[in-house]
């Protein structure tokens, strides 16, 4: 067996960020020298006591080249390495949703116009007992060029992102790194230091895990899974029966009648849903790589804990920046789409935390897709709008975020809200706020003037809400069709 090996993400055809330092890392014989040769430059380092090594590469120009790594008598050569714009896509099922399942897949493949795009799917390791040893049955990944033969494996949103970026800059090389896992809470994606940072997080995530996995035998787990699987089977039978009896009813409406697939499954010590699990098994797989930007699309599985989502999201962003040793890497946070079947106001609360993260943390940008989604289908097969909108922002050729209300003023008893990322607001249908006065919520019409929103007669208003529903109606957009982000806002008293 070879002593020299690279971490999994370093393969032929990889894309590295243009004009940005990057690292190559792997394992070798402990205390031995490792040399990395790039464009006639040689970088040297020495493996540590565990054999781990990492080399920092400094390049100022765009490149296409081979990279040679040497350790003692062994050599590994990476072929066809290119520089470009590298995006890390992360989150749960809606960003994991494969392009092959998109309603437009076949028409896009038949008329494909996508060049200079490559992608890498981070292996979905659910559990590993040794950080140096990956599961034996794990399917390895390599960087692939995005074409008709490979695109079926790519993130659906990732495809639409790349398509828009390619349209806006056809000569730029794009590298998409897919790192996601469906059905997951944000608690699976953060390190233990975040989860133990407050007693509230310990009570919500750590203690329930300990209770579910302490003093149980394998027979106990087998029984729990048998009961869970029986519930899933009953749901599938009931759904199939309903669809057969009602062939004209959509899947979304059918699930509204029958119910949704039971989730989550029982917790075990090795479940990928465990606290901090995927931070170690997936995010740490790419900790030494470099990215231009990170896209985070998640929140669906935290509808039961929306109050603490803001703490968790902040912890995720800051801990990842520390892990990547890139403290200013931009994050694009995707504000959840519409979906009705959740506890009342669960998704609006999460959207509010996503909005506030973009306002309070440096280099965090919001991409709202609250005007998309299906009422009773958590996995819509139409991802064009979401991916295109993210791609526009990633391309750095338009606004850096969704339109956001960033300032309030009271002028002559009128509430005036200033909106960013807009030249002229566009109002679709009747636009209104929910307004809280005398501890009661009422609908009030609003109007737009240029890039501001105006609410007349604002005396005594305590709080306002816009599009504050699980399945909202968005009526305010910028001139490019991007929605004003749903929000809730306290109104400052005008002394």
Automatic annotation (TrEMBL):
InterPro entries tied to this protein:
SASA, SGNH_hydro_sf, SIAE
**Residue ranges constituting the Sialate O-acetylesterase domain according to the UniProt record:** 85-213, 274-394
Q: Name one Pfam family in it.
A: SASA
Which is an annotated GO molecular function term of this record? sialate O-acetylesterase activity
Alphabetic keyword roster: Hydrolase
Write down the SUPFAM superfamilies for this protein, in alphabetical order: SGNH hydrolase
* UniProt-listed GO biological process terms: carbohydrate metabolic process
By what name is this protein known? Answer: Sialate O-acetylesterase domain-containing protein
Organism the protein comes from: Companilactobacillus farciminis
């Amino acid at each position: 067996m070879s002593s020299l090996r690279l971490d999994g993400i370093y393969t032929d055809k990889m894309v590295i960020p243009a004009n940005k330092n990057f690292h190559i890392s792997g394992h070798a014989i402990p205390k031995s020298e490792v040399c990395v040769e790039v464009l006639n430059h040689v970088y040297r380092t020495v493996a540590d006591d565990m054999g781990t090594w990492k080399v920092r590469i400094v390049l100022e120009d765009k490149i296409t080249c081979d990279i040679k790594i040497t350790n003692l008598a062994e050599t590994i050569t990476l072929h066809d390495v290119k520089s470009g714009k590298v995006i890390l896509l992360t989150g749960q099922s809606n960003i994991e949703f494969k392009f092959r399942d998109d309603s437009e897949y076949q028409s896009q493949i038949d008329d494909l116009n996508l060049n200079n795009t490559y992608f890498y799917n981070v292996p979905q390791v659910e559990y590993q007992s040794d950080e140096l040893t990956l599961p034996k049955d794990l399917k390895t990944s390599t960087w692939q060029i995005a074409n008709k033969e490979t695109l079926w494996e790519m993130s659906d949103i990732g495809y639409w992102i790349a398509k828009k970026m390619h349209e806006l800059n056809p000569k730029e090389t794009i590298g998409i790194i897919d790192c996601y896992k469906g059905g997951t809470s944000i608690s699976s994606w953060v390190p233990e230091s975040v989860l133990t940072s407050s007693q509230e997080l310990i009570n919500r995530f750590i203690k329930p895990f300990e209770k579910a996995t302490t003093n149980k035998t394998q027979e106990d787990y087998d029984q729990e899974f048998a009961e869970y699987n029986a519930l899933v089977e009953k749901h599938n039978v009931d759904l199939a029966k309903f669809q057969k009896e009602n062939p004209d009813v959509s899947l979304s409406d059918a699930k509204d009648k029958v119910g949704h697939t039971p989730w989550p499954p029982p917790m075990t010590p090795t479940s990928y849903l465990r606290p901090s699990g995927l931070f170690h098994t997936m995010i740490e797989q790419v900790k030494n790589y470099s990215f231009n930007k990170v896209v985070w699309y998640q929140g669906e599985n935290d509808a039961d804990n929306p109050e603490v989502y803001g703490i968790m999201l902040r912890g995720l962003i800051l801990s990842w920046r520390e892990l990547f040793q890139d403290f200013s890497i931009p994050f694009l946070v995707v504000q959840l789409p519409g979906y009705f079947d959740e506890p009342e106001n669960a998704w609006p609360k999460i959207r509010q935390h996503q909005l506030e993260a973009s306002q309070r943390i440096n280099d965090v940008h919001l991409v709202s897709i609250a005007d998309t989604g299906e009422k009773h289908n958590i996995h819509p097969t139409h991802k064009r709008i979401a991916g295109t909108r993210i791609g526009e922002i990633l391309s750095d050729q338009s606004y850096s975020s969704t339109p956001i209300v960033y300032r309030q003023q009271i002028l002559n008893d009128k509430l005036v809200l200033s909106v960013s990322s807009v030249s002229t607001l566009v109002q679709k249908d009747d636009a209104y706020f929910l307004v809280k006065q005398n501890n009661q919520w009422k609908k009030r019409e609003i109007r737009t003037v240029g890039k501001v929103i105006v609410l007349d007669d604002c005396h005594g208003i305590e709080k306002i809400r816009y599009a504050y529903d699980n399945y909202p109606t968005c009526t305010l957009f910028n001139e490019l069709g991007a929605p004003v982000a749903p929000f809730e806002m306290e109104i400052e008293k005008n002394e």
